[in-house]
Specification:
Radius of gyration: 20 Å
CATH architecture: Orthogonal Bundle
CATH topology: ABC transporter involved in vitamin B12 uptake, BtuC
Structural class: mainly alpha
Largest sheet: 2 strands, antiparallel
CATH class: Mainly Alpha
Distance between the termini: 69 Å
Number of strands: 2
Number of domains: 1
Oligomer: single chain
Order of helices and strands: HHHHHHHHHHHHEEHH
Number of helices: 14
Strand order of the largest sheet: 1-2
Shape: globular
């Protein structure tokens, strides 16, 4: 039974991590360019609602995902306008987006669907899972069948896309001309400007990319995991993604490992809820739900002083004359 439970935790970790990976990769682009993206939570909620609502209306998950991208990018551009063009406080801009989307998505969902601020169940409009070649042949083989059909296979296309992002993002940031310019804008925008790099345009590009990536996190929540939109269903995923960035020192591989760590503890939380544990007994559900956030506090307390953020992070760029 214990082996089965641990196997379930591993599978749940793989299925929960993409929510954080997409958001963390979005934050990685924004913050490497010098913009604090604390508005990840709001963009996740907006894209989750729009994706679910449009997917239900047209009964097509891919149309829903496309609509979610547009919603998230629109918010990213608003955030970029305030933070980059108007040189406003980046933290305030992000928090404003989070608060606004928490209320607005609920109100609009109630207006259109009249179901208490949620969307109807998507049913056939949810993304189908991927069945890997040879799954039927190895399904009955102990160990191998579980590994191939449940741990590696049997997931949504967005799960595979999330993990495929790691080498793509690493190459873009560290082996492309755009990535070099992006990192220069986050480290020393005045030197980048002197070298002829358009700092504001580069930061806008980073925010657009962040909007696109963050939209997949919201779409995954509503179209894959839940099959509907529910108020505040992100449950702090945007903040956990930012914590993973700190854990990963703003580097793709370590950030993904941080996302997997949080995904693991979220899976443990689900697994032990309602279970009588040896010497402890049954832990109250409210305490179990605190596990990912306790881990967040511990990670921040232990690693904040050791993490080195981009030097110009959060600082508006004023062009020298």
């Amino acid at each position: 039974m214990e082996d089965f439970q641990f196997a379930s935790i591993l599978v749940s970790t793989i299925r929960y991590a993409p929510v954080l990976i997409f958001a963390a990769m979005a934050g990685l682009f924004a913050e490497r360019s010098g913009v604090v993206d604390i508005g990840l939570e709001g963009k996740i909620l907006a894209s989750a609602f729009v994706s679910a609502g449009v997917a239900y209306t047209y009964q097509d998950p891919w149309i829903g995902i496309a609509a979610g991208i547009l919603a998230s990018v629109a918010l990213a551009l608003v955030q970029a306008f305030v933070s980059i063009t108007q040189k406003g406080n980046q933290l305030v801009a992000g928090i404003a987006i989070n608060i606004a989307m928490s209320g607005l998505t609920f109100v609009v969902a109630q207006y259109f669907f009249q179901q208490g601020g949620r969307t109807p169940d998507l049913g056939e409009a949810r993304l189908a899972t991927v069945v890997l070649p040879g799954s039927d042949l190895v399904a009955g083989v102990p160990g191998l069948g579980w590994f191939w059909t449940r741990l590696v296979g049997g997931h949504s296309p967005l799960v595979y896309f999330a993990f495929a992002l790691l080498p793509i993002v690493h190459w873009v940031l560290f082996h492309s001309r755009f990535g070099l310019r992006l990192r220069a804008c986050g480290e020393n925008p005045h030197a980048a400007d002197a070298a002829g790099i358009p700092v504001q345009r580069t930061r806008y590009s980073a925010m657009i990319i962040a909007g696109v990536l963050c939209s997949f996190s919201g779409a995954y929540l509503s179209i894959v995991q839940s099959g509907f939109f529910l108020r505040d269903m992100s449950a702090g995923a945007g903040y956990l993604a930012l914590t993973a960035l700190v854990f990963g020192n703003w580097r793709p591989l370590h950030t993904v490992l941080g996302c997997l760590m949080f995904g693991f503890f979220a899976a443990v939380q689900i697994q032990i809820e309602g279970v009588d544990l040896p010497l402890v007994g049954r832990i109250p559900g409210s305490l179990i739900q605190m596990i990912p956030y306790i881990v967040t506090v511990v990670v921040l307390a232990g690693l904040m002083a050791k993490s080195v953020a981009p030097k110009a992070l959060g600082k508006p760029f004023v062009k020298s004359r």
